[in-house]
DNA sequence: AATGGGACCTGCGCGC
DNA sequence: TGCGCGCAGGTCCCAT
């Protein structure tokens, strides 16, 4: 999905567009998107509520309503939000008090909508590890040091470090010149420090460029992100390496496609 | 503890 | 042109 930078982009735009607006109506064509409570209760629970705050936690969007109720949106792989007019392709539509609409778009319908009392009690959120954007070097080191898991797979584990997904993990490992197949505990102190730096810098860069629109992702206005043009390995099998110009390799790790340079990444 | 597979869904691009 | 297949930004669950 939308990884941390894409969700952060949406969050920043949502703050401007929907804060202090009221949800006046709601409909969905795919009620299975609503995970809790029931679809009916969900609708009843959000109608008439004013948006007090918009929060991002890892890859989740959290909309604080009145009475400390929270609308939690997990975009998963293909979800995105489109603000403005009602869109015929929307899986769900939030009608706002200013006459505008927030469309929930999701071609694969794998996303999740929830209404809950305190988002911090959600199981998935309780289990999240520190955010990739602000994990300290010492915590990062501690996370890697005793693990025999492949570094790429470890970085995707949201309970250890949250916010990274399959795009930015590959990019960070490439920039740090670390082979994604290495076990986490094989990294030297120097490599740990470099990887930590590259994770932070790639995420910041991606936020600056409003995320990567590799496939379905768009920002709130329906525009593509600018980051996909800056990606150096994701989806670039057989293209030439940014550093050494030799062709990039694709393998599968943890069931996910993984592109890297077998010459530069040691 | 770590790894692999399948499940959840739809849509796209590719090769034949 | 049409069709079948593999693959896709995430996460959970089960088996070994």
Task: Please supply descriptive tags for the structure shown above.
single chain, 266 residues, alpha+beta, five-stranded mixed β-sheet, four-stranded antiparallel β-sheet, 7 helices, 11 strands, 27% helix, DNA-binding
Instruction: Give the uncertain stretches in residue-range form.
Output: none
Shape: elongated
- Return Rg in Å: 19 Å
**How many DSSP H or I helices?**
7
Percentage of β-strand residues: 15-25%
Helix/strand class? alpha+beta
Could you state the order of secondary-structure elements as H and E? HEEHEEEEEEEHHHHHEE
Q: How many angstroms separate the termini?
A: 28 Å
Provide the residue-averaged pLDDT.
96
Number of strands: 11
- Can you list the strand order of the major beta sheet? 2-9-5-4-3
Largest sheet: 5 strands, mixed
Helix content: 25-40%
Short recap of the structure:
The protein is an alpha+beta fold and 266 residues long. Helix content is 27%, strand content 21%.
Report on this model:
The structure is a single chain. The chain has 266 residues and is of the alpha+beta class. It is 27% helix and 21% strand. The protein contains seven helices and eleven strands. The protein has helices at residues 4-18, 39-46, 123-127, 137-145, 151-156, 166-175, 189-208; strands at 23-28, 34-36, 53-57, 60-64, 70-74, 79-84, 92-96, 101-106, 112-116, 249-253, 256-260. A five-stranded mixed sheet has the order 2-9-5-4-3, with helices on one face. A four-stranded antiparallel sheet has the order 1-7-8-6, with helices on one face. Strands 10-11 form a two-stranded antiparallel sheet. It is elongated and about 55 Å long. The two termini are 28 Å apart. The model has no long low-confidence stretch (mean pLDDT 96). The structure holds a DNA duplex (16 and 16 nucleotides).
């Amino acid at each position: 999905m939308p990884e941390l930078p894409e969700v952060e982009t949406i969050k920043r735009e949502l703050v401007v567009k929907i804060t202090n607006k009221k949800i006046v109506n709601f409909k969905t064509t795919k009620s299975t998107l609503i995970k809790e409570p029931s679809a009916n209760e969900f609708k009843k629970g959000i109608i008439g509520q004013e948006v007090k705050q918009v929060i991002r936690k890892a890859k989740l969007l959290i909309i604080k309503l009145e009475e400390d109720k929270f609308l939690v949106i997990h975009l998963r792989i293909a979800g995105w939000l489109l603000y403005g007019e009602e869109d015929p392709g929307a899986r769900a539509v939030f009608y706002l008090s200013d006459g505008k609409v927030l469309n929930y778009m999701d071609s694969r319908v794998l996303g999740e909508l929830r209404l809950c009392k305190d988002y911090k009690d959600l199981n998935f959120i309780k289990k999240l590890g520190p955010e990739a954007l602000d994990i300290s070097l010492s915590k990062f080191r501690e996370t890697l040091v005793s693990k025999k898991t492949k570094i790429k797979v470890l970085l995707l584990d949201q309970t250890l470090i949250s916010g990274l997904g399959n795009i930015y993990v590959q990019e960070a490992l490439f920039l740090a010149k670390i082979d994604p197949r290495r076990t986490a505990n094989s990294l030297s102190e120097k490599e740990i420090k470099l990887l930590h730096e590259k994770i932070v810098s790639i995420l910041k860069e991606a936020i600056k460029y409003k995320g990567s629109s590799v496939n379905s992702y768009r920002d709130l206005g329906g525009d593509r992100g600018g980051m996909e043009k800056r990606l150096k390995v994701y989806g670039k099998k057989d293209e030439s390496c940014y550093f050494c110009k030799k062709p990039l390799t694709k393998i599968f790790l943890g069931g996910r496609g993984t592109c890297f340079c077998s010459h530069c990444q040691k």
